[in-house]
Write a structure and sequence with these properties.
By secondary structure, the chain is of the alpha+beta class. The chain has 9 helices and 13 strands.
């Protein structure tokens, strides 16, 4: 639900959303920079409720890295045209081999992701696979080597390499996150010297204008019903497995939820299991 200046923010009761993180887009006048900021507490609560509901127990350190990546990724997609869908996969080589996947869109105003620790490809450096899906042009995919060791550094490196512009990423108090990007004729010296304390007080020290807000929640929308058509399209392989085992466990690649699929579910086209 996007809200621009002068528009009334009406709640959308049709959304299956209890709470959301409100991302503000703020233009910093005279510095020609765009500030994206949000308190991500509600979104993080949604993520942990997802883990609890589906009995997932990621390593605490990896979960913290994932949360930070999810926050900066959400700020990034708000800086982009609203009709795009983005996905990032971080293939991290150390200290443990792990993939962090995040995906989201301003159209649906939701983000989702998961942590992969099994069957992770070994690489010489950390790699970011970035995908941009837009409905009126071909999908664009880029692969960017990264030298940083944190989501904050990865985000800044991505902007330099892919967006061809400077950006600064900051973690504030509590669950507050900030991303400030250089626009045409930006004050680069000012941007380079910004601190986390300064960016949190920009409304007091700089002339700013709120451009819009967007409300994001952690949500996948997957279900066995959405996965079953894929199984039907691969009839032979899955038919053999179903014949041998009687059921299959299929994992959602976006959020990691496991679904048990039986022969009856595949044959019954009216079945509608609950969505995640």
């Amino acid at each position: 639900m996007r809200t621009r200046m002068g528009e009334k923010n009406q709640p959308d009761d049709s959304r299956f959303v209890a709470e959301y993180a409100t991302v503000q887009s703020v233009f910093v006048r005279h510095r020609n920079c765009l500030l994206l900021r949000a308190d991500f507490s509600p979104l993080f609560v949604g993520y942990y409720l997802h883990l609890m509901q589906h009995a997932m127990h990621p390593d605490e350190e990896k979960a913290e890295i994932f949360k930070q990546l999810l926050a900066f990724f959400t700020l990034y997609i708000v800086s982009r045209p609203w009709k795009e869908h983005h996905a990032w996969t971080l293939n991290v080589k150390s200290p443990d081999r792990v993939n962090y996947f995040v995906s989201g869109s301003s159209l649906s105003e939701d983000v989702v992701g998961r942590i992969f620790t099994e069957d992770v490809r070994e690489t010489d450096t950390t790699l970011l696979y970035a995908q941009n899906i837009c409905y009126d042009r071909d999908t664009h995919t880029s692969v960017i080597p990264l030298s940083g060791s944190s989501p904050r550094e990865w985000t800044e490196e991505y902007f330099r390499a892919s967006e061809q512009r400077q950006a600064r990423a900051f973690i504030g108090e509590g669950d507050s996150f900030y991303l400030i990007t250089a626009e045409p004729e930006a004050d680069f010296d000012w941007l380079s010297e910004l601190t986390a304390q300064q960016v949190a007080r920009l409304d007091q020290t700089e002339e700013t204008k709120l451009l819009e807000t967007r409300n994001f929640t952690f949500r996948c929308g997957c279900s066995a019903q959405r996965i079953i058509p894929v199984i039907r399209a691969m009839k032979k392989d899955f038919a053999d497995l179903l014949s041998e085992q009687g059921e299959l466990t299929v994992s959602c690649p976006r959020c990691g939820v496991n679904y048990t699929v039986t022969r009856d579910m595949v044959n019954n086209r009216d079945a509608s299991p609950d969505a995640c």
